[in-house]
């Protein structure tokens, strides 16, 4: 049996190719409902944290200077801050409802199986909350 030369062996070998991974559908983060829920929960949590920090700081002005406190409170009575209160209620509502969803996922066996459905239920309840709140808040802010 004749031996093949090194040149013919190299020609017969296939060069391995590296396939690039398939990009997941949706977003860069593989996310669907679960990922969006995670992102929104973190964003609303950080926003609420900073609101509470500012709230504690402006309330503490009462002890330092009642005039400064009154000046800060008067800035909160502007229409811009009234719209900011809508954002605050939206953040608190979404964060709270999604927190209940996370509790259900963590403590009940059926939670992970139905987490997508629960996400849409949270969004529906959140929208209902805002539909009830926003018109009254706008009437309050703009004197309607």
UniProtKB/TrEMBL annotation:
CDD domains: SQR_TypeA_SdhC_like (cd03501). Its main location: membrane. Keywords: Heme, Iron, Membrane, Metal-binding, Transmembrane, Transmembrane helix. Coiled coil: none annotated. The chain crosses the membrane at residues 39-57, 86-105, 117-134. The keyword Iron applies. It is found in: Membrane. Its cofactor is heme. Belongs to the cytochrome b560 family. This is Succinate dehydrogenase / fumarate reductase cytochrome b subunit. It comes from Conyzicola nivalis. The lineage of its organism: Bacteria, Bacillati, Actinomycetota, Actinomycetes, Micrococcales.
């Amino acid at each position: 049996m004749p031996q093949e030369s090194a040149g013919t062996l190299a020609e017969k070998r296939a060069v391995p190719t590296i396939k690039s991974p398939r990009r997941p559908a949706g977003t860069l983060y593989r996310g669907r409902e679960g990922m969006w829920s995670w992102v929104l929960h973190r964003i609303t949590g950080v926003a609420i944290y900073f609101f509470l920090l500012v709230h504690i700081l402006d309330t503490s002005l009462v002890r330092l200077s009642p005039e400064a406190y009154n000046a800060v409170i008067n800035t909160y009575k502007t229409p811009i801050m009234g719209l900011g209160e809508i954002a605050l209620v939206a953040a608190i509502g979404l964060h709270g409802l999604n927190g209940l969803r996370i509790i259900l996922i963590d403590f009940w066996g059926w939670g992970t199986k139905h987490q997508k459905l629960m996400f849409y239920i949270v969004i529906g309840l959140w929208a209902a909350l805002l539909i009830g709140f926003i018109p009254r808040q706008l009437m309050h802010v703009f004197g309607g």
